[in-house]
Amino acid sequence: MSDDPEPRTTQVDSQQGTLGAMILKALSAGPLHGYAIARWIESVAGDQLLIEEGSLYPALRRLEQRGWLTSRWALSETNRKVKLYRLTADGRRQLSAEVTRWRSFADAVTRVLETTGEAR
Fold it and tell me: What is the pLDDT of residue 2?
C-alpha cells in the first residue's frame, strides 16, 4: 500500500461484472458507440477510471450475446462508421438488478470499514 495521497486512475478490466454494469448504465439514456461509452464512464467517474478497448469491446460482445443490448452500424457526428449500442428491455432489468446488487455490496463493505471495534 502506498502513502501517496494523489488519486490514481484505476484501470477497469478484471472486473467484468463491474464494467458490464457501467456499460448498461451508460446506455440507459440512449444509444452510444464504444468510444463514447468509455468516455462517458471516465467522465462520470471524474477520470478516476480508465476503460481500455481491450476490455470494453469484449464486454460489449458479452452483453450483446446475453441479450442485454443490441447494435447496428451508423455514421457518427464526424461521418465515421461506428457501431451504436442500445439497451434492450432485458438489459434495463439487468441494470436494475446490478444497481441493487452493488448497493448491497457497498453497504456491506462500508459497515466493515467503518467498524471501530477489534476483529473477533
Answer: 47
Q: Is 60 exposed, middle or buried (0-12, 13-18, 19+ CB in 10 A)?
A: buried
Structure-model confidence comparison of residues 9 and 80, the more confident one: 80
Q: Which of 55, 104, 112, 56 is nearest to 83 (CA)?
A: 56
3-state helix, strand, coil in the chain (%, to 5): 50, 15, 30
Q: Reduce the DSSP state of residue 10 to 3 states and report it.
A: strand
pTM of the shown model: 0.82
What is Dmax (Cα atoms) for the chain? 62
Q: From CA 84, how far away is CA 36, in angstroms rounded?
A: 10
Pair 21, 102: CB distance under 8 Å: yes
